[in-house]
């Protein structure tokens, strides 16, 4: 099982670099059961799209730094996928199921998208800045 997750992580990284979403990535951190990726939209306006595999005890987190007046559409798709959006007091989130719109209402906000599944799910996460 560990080898499958390792191979998947390598493929995801290769896919991200090949499709250009690496331009959004500020930093990544991988641990045994949690992977965290920080992204931004300051230099690149195209959507951030990533395909991955999550399940069991493993959780993938994507953290987006947003600024006042910005809005983002966040869509997560995958069989048996659970997606949670955490935004603190600096943003409002509206949506159901697999799509949410998050609006930053304070000076800034750290928006966290957390993906998990039981037992396992291949997923696609798409985050786009909207007007």
TrEMBL record:
Organism superkingdom: Bacteria
N-terminal signal peptide: 1-18
Identification of the protein by name: Lipoprotein
Keywords assigned: Signal
Alphabetized PROSITE patterns for the sequence: PROKAR_LIPOPROTEIN
